[in-house]
């Protein structure tokens, strides 16, 4: 049972995204970085962090290398899931405004297409919008496909505005 949850397509994608974020954070520590704390009258107050040194640097390098191996493994699992149809590979290049997407058994019209998610009308009712990450979508229908099917027959598909 735990293996099924561990290899769930949504869990795998979330894990990959988290590991990529951890890699970026460790790389910043390794290389050194700076950040803007605040701006007063157009003058930026910047905090600088020097590159890691000594044993801490070595532990970062080791951690980055180990995590890179884990990322490679999980990205392979994700590729297998996409190839087998177990997971989707939706993105801003496959979904457009006006299309329908399915999440949690309900179809929603796409209001906006973002880099990592789609914006849909409020999922629980209301006049706001919600975002759904691409990897959590369970289905997609293009706007032209919807028009064709609705013209030819009435569908029993539930669509929330």
What does this structure look like?
This protein has 161 residues and is α+β, with helices and mostly antiparallel strands. The protein contains 4 helices and 8 strands; from the N terminus they run ααββαββββββα. It has helices at residues 2-6, 9-31, 54-84, 143-152; strands at residues 33-40, 43-49, 100-103, 106-109, 112-113, 117-121, 129-133, 139-141. The chain has a 3-stranded antiparallel sheet. β6 and β7 (129-133) form a beta hairpin. α2 (9-31) packs antiparallel against α3 (54-84).
Lay out the secondary structure:
Blueprint: H1 2-6, H2 9-31, E1 33-40, E2 43-49, H3 54-84, E3 100-103, E4 106-109, E5 112-113, E6 117-121, E7 129-133, E8 139-141, H4 143-152
Antiparallel strand pairs: 1-2, 3-4, 3-8, 5-6, 6-7
Helix pairs in contact: 2-3
SSE order in H/E notation? HHEEHEEEEEEH
Give the biggest sheet: 3 strands, antiparallel
Oligomeric category: single chain
Classification by helices and strands: alpha+beta
- The tally of helices reads 4
- What is the overall silhouette? flat
The strand count comes to 8
Order of strands across the main sheet: 4-3-8
Estimate percent helicity: 40-55%
- Report the average pLDDT across residues: 91
The fraction of residues in strands falls at 15-25%
Q: Which parts are unreliable, with pLDDT below 50 for 5 consecutive residues or more?
A: none
